[in-house]
Amino acid sequence: MNHFIALELNNQRGLLSPGESHHASRVLRLQAGASISVTVGDGKVYRARITEANPKETSFQIEALLREERKPLLKIAMAPTKSNDRFEFFLEKATELGVSEICPL
Prior knowledge:
By secondary structure, the protein is of the alpha/beta class. The chain is 23% helix and 43% strand.
């Protein structure tokens, strides 16, 4: 089953982004009625069925919740570097990776 990240979910229906829609319809050649797994990035993974396959906007209907994952609590302690730019870069990337607490030493 192919896994996609959805833009939004509303009342058991959702949309894939234009990039994901292109990949689903053109590259994988998925048609309406195909089964996929979808997440919005909140730790929940759903089984869904494509209702409309379009390269610009693919819609789907959620059928079931497959699993719900809890993110582990991540904490990092770091000594600041000489350059503020490098420390800001570290803060940005650590936040993107899901670090919940950063303690400068």
